[in-house]
Design brief:
It contains 11 helices and no strands. It is mostly helical. The protein has 2 domains: 13-60, Arc Repressor Mutant, subunit A (Orthogonal Bundle); 67-212, Tetracycline Repressor, domain 2 (Orthogonal Bundle).
Amino acid sequence: MTATTVQKKVTRPRADALRNRERIVTAAQEMFTEFGPDVPLDEIARRAGVGNATVYRNFPDRDALVREVVCSVMDRTTEAAELALAETGDAFEALERFVHTSADERVSALCPMVQSTFDQNHPDLEAARLRCEELIVELMDRAKAAGQLRTDVESGDLMIAVAQLSRPPFGTACLNADRFVHRHLQLFLDGLRAPARSVLPGTATTMEDLRQA
């Protein structure tokens, strides 16, 4: 057997192993949203329908699993906005799709985990965050240039509103609040359209402003 043959036989993850990993990430996102980042990993394994050993084989510790969940959410919301822009060429419509997808992905529930549970400077998280933030700024800049978006708002304003409006009120079950979220987000988005009907107090907030707050 030649070295080339041996090199070609480098193992790749089996399809069932990839499915297990996806099930774990999906179950973790659901349970982190419902119960917070401290939910026992064996409960996540039970919901995913896999053994504890399978969870630890894919994610050696809780931080690794939380990071994978947050990165996957960022990637899906970014892809939704990119797809909308490619399909319509309409920056404001793409921005709307990004906002509604972010709400569906429970971004507001995951945000506190980014702040408290693991290294915010991990390369995977940095790459996903940078890609997401750059796209938000690009969409907003395009919408402003097209005269669709008021000029006195920035990306930080958008993300604060998305986080606040997609978070269920105190005492309201998370799933029961879903029917209100997209209605209120659309009201907010309509308020972002140009021409602006009022002058906003304070100054526009960027993502960098949020990190330094």
